Amino acid sequence: MGGVGGGLMANAYPQAWSNSFNACAKLEQRGVRAGGGLGGGMSIITAVGASAMAGALQKPLHSQPDSQALANTLWGLSYFDWHDENIIRVLAHAMVQRINSSTSQGLSNVLWALAKFEWYDESTVSKLAAGMVEHIDSSEPQGLSNTLWALAKLGWYDEGVVSKLAAGVVEHIDSSEPQEFSNVLWALAKFGWYDKGVVSKLAAGMVERLASSEPQGLSNTLWALAKFGWYDESVVSKLAAAMVERIDSSKPQDFSNVLWALSTLRWYDSGVYDTLLVTLLDKRDQAAPQDFSNAIYSCALASHGGIVVDGLAKVISRQDVSKPRGWMEQALANSLYAWSVLGSIGIASDSLSAMAQHLMLEVNGRGPAAFQSLQLTQLYLAHLVAEQVGLQGGRLSPGKGGMLQAAAERHLQGQAELQKRAKQSEGAAGVHQAAAALQEAGYEVELGGSIGQDKFHAELLVRHESCPRGITVDILSSADVFHWPPGQLSGKARQIHAQIKQRCDGLVVLSEADAKQPGLVVQQVEKTMRGAAM
């Protein structure tokens, strides 16, 4: 694109370039390929135009682009396969210099573009965010939503700024669109910023506009609600149903995120889980390792098994897990932990066993240094289950690399930490009330006891001569029990109970309400003791 044509383009007025970038980006938004059949020529035009805009900033002030032109340019360029660190910096800094003459839409568009470019300068982003707050009264819902989304993507956080922007979104809630609700909820969850009233209004607004919502928005909304730990049965059920209705137009990441969110929110419906899993398997060629890992992990939390879960295990077994950038350590550890949970609660199959063998082979090859503390604990639990069921190739290696020793040591440290906290802290009221009732009845009790050779943590251990290994009393927390269906225990709680039963003479499981009834506590412990002695 040299010669006279290239020269004419380079010398075009800044406003002309800005308008062109803005128009082309809007075409891209609608799915129309900007530039038509120009092919590589479009990238040349983009590079020339970006350079021309940066160069115009060196001209006399009256010939320089204004704030709107700069905003349109950065916003437009973010839609193309273009990136020039120096030009982005020059244009962003120029936007900051013109912040007083900028509009709220212009500021939000610039922040959105910088997030798309993954370009970050703390001072620049801080000034643009502060400018957005100053213009908050004239801001539209989309601008506020895009600003929060961009700041979250860039990893920039200021509680005061985020609070004001979130409040601004709530003020415009009646004129907001589903994508704006989901973007804001996603951003607030990434920030770790939570206000129950704000989140409740945004979630309700999303449900009111389900008819025009997109799969990614539904997925992001459920993911955010799970991160917050916010639950409303009607809202979660409607969001899950809407996701199932849009299953054909969803992406694998949407399915896995929804499964993770539903299991984390402790909501379960076998039909919904199977539908999401079947579609994930149908689109497995588009899925990432984390999508499979999240899915099997979610099934474990929800105690969900069956032919579809076997199909998922078969797909994972055929994955090339030897590429660390693909199957990262967290995905390996979560998948093996999920297998251990499923196995502990009686959900087993040849397909699941083959998956465990396939993944454990890679784990042993990477060695302990590749895994974090929590991941080593997860791997040790998988090793224990493999030992119990006699699964060859499913165990941690005791030889070169020291995987078994490192994981076992981390497991012991974790159990010791749990016991120390139980002994030093007041703990849950229910535990202390149950302990007091048993002591009053003449029993020896121990808070934060240990059972078995591996010193497994027992929340409350009752000692008695008829039961030399003790009776463990476990008080269920809200996290152990599903909201829907009511009373269903999580897979994680069921696995812990299975591990306890292997190490002591009996287990008594009580709700928090039961633990506050002295007579019932003593009755259940004595009933379990009689059963153990028979």
Structural description of this entry:
With 534 residues, the chain is mainly alpha-helical. Helix content is 63%, strand content 6%. It has helices at residues 3-10, 14-29, 40-56, 67-77, 85-97, 104-117, 122-134, 141-154, 159-171, 178-191, 196-208, 215-228, 233-245, 252-264, 270-282, 289-301, 307-317, 329-344, 350-366, 373-389, 403-424, 429-440, 491-501, 512-515, 518-533; strands at residues 444-451, 456-464, 467-475, 506-510. The chain has a four-stranded mixed β-sheet with strand order 1-2-3-4, sandwiched between helices. A hairpin with a 2-residue loop joins strand 2 (456-464) and strand 3 (467-475). The longest helix has 22 residues, at 403-424. The radius of gyration is 29 Å and the shape is elongated. The termini are far apart.
Termini gap: 91 Å
Give me the secondary-structure category: mainly alpha
Strand content: 5-15%
Low-pLDDT parts are 1-10, 36-40
Number of strands: 4
Average pLDDT: 92
**Rg (CA only):** 29 Å
SSE string, helices as H and strands as E:
HHHHHHHHHHHHHHHHHHHHHHEEEHEHH
Give the biggest beta sheet.
Answer: 4 strands, mixed
Strands ordered across the widest β-sheet: 1-2-3-4
Annotation field: number of helices: 25
Shape: elongated
Organism: Dunaliella salina (Green alga)
Domain RNA-editing substrate-binding complex 8 protein HEAT repeats: 70-305
Pfam families: RESC8
InterPro entries: ARM-like, ARM-type_fold, FAST_kinase, RESC8_HEAT
